[in-house]
Amino acid sequence: MHIIVVGASDIGSQLLDHTTQEGHNVVVVEKDDATTERAAQNHDCLVMTADATVMETLEETGAAQADAIVSTTESDATNVM
To answer: Which of 1, 27, 44, 74 has its CA at a distance of 20 to 30 angstroms from the CA of residue 21?
Structure first.
């Protein structure tokens, strides 16, 4: 499955643990540089430092072909985009 995870902090990192261990093709979009670096070091997936509310970012992640897009940020506005 092609899965996009927006936000890689608490819940997002747990989701990354599960999805990458299952062998899914995972792309992470995270705004915070330190969180992005941590996700890249701990998970076998593509990690982007970007804003997922920007259409170009979603296009770069392959959102049109994604089986799932899961938003786990602390921002309700971002999570319901």
So the answer is: 74
